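Q: I have 381 residues here and want to know how they pack in 3D. Can you give me a structure?
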Amino acid sequence: MTIKSLHLKSLLMCSLGLLSLSASLPAETELPAWAIGPFIRPETGNPVIDPDASILFNCPMRKKPIRWESLHAFNPAAVAKDGKIFVLYRAEDDTGPMIIGHHTSRIGLAESADGVKFSKQPLPVLYPDNDNQAAGEWTGGCEDPRVVEGENGLYVMTYTQWNQKDWRLAIATSRDLVKWEKQGPAFAKALEGKYAKLKCKSGAIVTQLDGDRLKAVKINGKYWMYWGVGVVYLAYSDNLVDWTILEDGKGEKIAVLQGRAGHFDSSMVEGGPPAVLTDKGVVVLYNGENLGQEGKVKGDPTLGARAYSGGQALFDSKDLTKLLGRTKTPFFKPELPYEKTGQYVAGTTFIEGLVYAKGKWFLYYGCADSKVGVAIYDPSR
């Protein structure tokens, strides 16, 4: 089926029986009724994942042992499985110059019974290898995963391929979260390769609460993904692997979320963890970068220049391009020392992992591009 044959309104018709998510907050920090939260950091346990310089990995590219998570462990995906919470996190080794983006990244795996105390696998589960994706992943690596559960126990990861020159949104699949099969760039096959070389990242697939965990959901026969950095766009898929960018009648990408002057997301917006379909619409949790106070366009004066905070936006479940609501202030922002010091000194709470488990919502985030933190929303309180 070609994009020209798709009728947007009919594609975006939503099924019934969706979950309602809301929160009641004090007036000074009140979230909209449609939003998920509030998320509170646990009193103890953070950061939940730190880098470890003692772990070695025999890199197939460098052909020698590498301290694969010696510098940083951050920007996590998360998924619930077998009564536990699994976090897949980006780890950087100590190769290359000490500049952001110039080390090699690999993706590690950790598990937890309570969502706070984690044990790690000793070796990365996704990394640059001598495979058909090496040209896109070496020497930069595999970065910033998001993971959803699909049909029949298949797990789907969106991640960034980075070769120190170009970055592309890619897909990997797994049955056990340990062995991953790389599927290549997300948009490579669609529209006769129109977007095969597009620089893109940050794919947040739409999910729905199904029983005791989030799963990818089809809306009128299609899976949907909010994606992009700088501006957020939409894409759709039949199988969670091959994605087509949603275009307008002129063949242009449809921008659905952009930055706002004077706000925490004034510089740009970027896809966050998997989006959630509710009876209010589709809740998109996203990352916003703040501008400083210089120049004609200014950011939020309560946040520092280039600080990353979390926002939420609500889209119509019958038209996923239609923005219905948006938080005016960040629902989650850098506050603690480990969120303001490290590799990214401007401060970052970069949200990427969202899990529903044990009757609570767990939000996993990168702390200053250096460590992994968690915040929890308990709807019963």
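Q: Anything worth noting?
A: The longest strand covers residues 72-81. DSSP finds three helices and 24 strands in the chain.
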